Amino acid sequence: MMVSHLDWSYPREDQGNTSYLSPRGTHGLAVSIIFTNSLAAIFILARMYTRTKLSKRMEANDCMIVVALVFSFAFMPFGFTIPFYNAALLCAKASIIMQYFRAVISGDPSIPSSCLSSKGLWFSNASMHIATDLAILTIPIPALAALELLRK
């Protein structure tokens, strides 16, 4: 029997239980979700501590990242994970955009400072986003090319 690299997309029927993952795959998925969400929670709690106790200044971007964390925890136990994942991703990106606006509005180019070069910052930011967009675009190409679709 020939095994394709796409076999993971079909449900498995092990001991009467239908699942898309093997038992070890389910365990690995659970460990990775718990690890990444725990790591995110630690960093966001550190951020909240810094913003509330040290700088004594909370802003909208801080609240938005907490909402993103709540959505990321909310999508785990439910069967409709995509809406919660998208909401968490949207809130995280909104928090980043709010931080950008705060940095741009508070930055006065007429005041001498030792900040990063604005031009260099924007080019490095754009290049990272372009690189990740290209990665997202190219990753599924081998799997899509392997699909056996009718050609007309």
Summarize this entry quickly.
This protein has about 150 residues and is mostly helical.
How would you describe what is shown here?
The protein is mainly α and 152 residues long. Helix 1 runs antiparallel to helix 2 and helix 2 (60-74) packs antiparallel against helix 3 (81-106). The protein is flat. It has a domain at 16-106. The model is unreliable at 1-9 (pLDDT under 50). The longest helix is centred in the N-terminal third of the chain and has 32 residues, at 23-54. The chain has five helices and two strands; from the N terminus they run ββααααα. It has helices spanning 23-54, 60-74, 81-106, 118-138, 141-145, and strands spanning 12-14, 17-19. Strands 1-2 form a two-stranded antiparallel ribbon. A hairpin with a 2-residue loop joins strand 1 (12-14) and strand 2 (17-19). It is a multi-pass membrane protein.
What key phrases describe this protein's structure?
152 residues, mainly alpha, two-stranded antiparallel sheet, 2 strands, 4% strand, disordered N terminus, transmembrane helix, SAT4-like, Rhodopsin domain-containing protein
